[in-house]
Amino acid sequence: QVQLVESGGGLVQAGGSLRLSCVANGRPVNNAGMGWFRQAPGKEREFVAAISISGNTTPYGDSVKGRFTISRDNAENTVYLQMNWLKPEDTAVYYCATRRGPGSLQSLRSQSSYDYWGQGTQVTVSS
Question: What is the pLDDT of residue 24?
Answer without folding.
Answer: 96
